[in-house]
Amino acid sequence: MSCGSLDAFLGSSHRVADTFRTPGGPISTELRVNDRIRVPEVRLVGPNGEQVGIVRIEDALRLAQESDLDLVEVAPTARPPVCKLMDYGKYKYEAAQKARESRRNQTNTVIKEMKLRPKIDQHDYGTKKGHVVRFLRQGDKVKITIMFRGREQHRPELGFGLLQRLAEDVDELGFVESAPRQDGRNMIMVLAPHKKKSEARAEVKAEKERVAGIRAAERAAEKADRAPQERTPKPHGRSENLDPEIES
What we know:
Elements: H1 3-19, E1 21-22, E2 25-26, E3 41-45, E4 51-56, H2 57-66, E5 70-75, E6 82-86, H3 88-105, E7 111-116, H4 122-137, E8 141-147, H5 156-169, E9 174-183, E10 186-193, H6 197-231, H7 244-247
């Protein structure tokens, strides 16, 4: 049985345990290990995933003890239950490490918003586009809203053209996830980054480390250039002698 199959067994056993209820309340979801397994026989799986077959529980416990491993019931609902020989403490530790790493890498989807007017001037457009570029580089989605006022509502093509222009300007960083659509007095478009947020974070971190390394190298070079100058002794000035006879 592979590690993936084992994880599936463990996951399914936890879900099954969660569905059982007793009059006194929910039962424990902890897997049964060693002497806590109270069935006459089990389908045994070896430590490397090899199928041993159906054996008596006494023989399975003896094999576990001889191998200095634990007997873990990984599929309690099977008939007979499936048990595996493993180092259960090590498995729980590795599973906790994987879960912690998964939570660390998990990223929540963030949607930034940028609002523009259909008759925006070139300078403001450049500023707004710069913010959109920064958001996309960070791995965030961007909701672009064109706000129409007064007679501008009768010129939706202005907003549509502006959104198309912006999408083309940031084409290298993102793509149009939601095409422009009218929403009351506004027109909305959603841009999504080409790269995942985790990848964007890794690139930002790598860039910061690269810049920090360059600055550290520059400081070390400057320090090395100053060192010889600081070690060079300063020449002593000749004292002026006001007595000409002594000078001769």
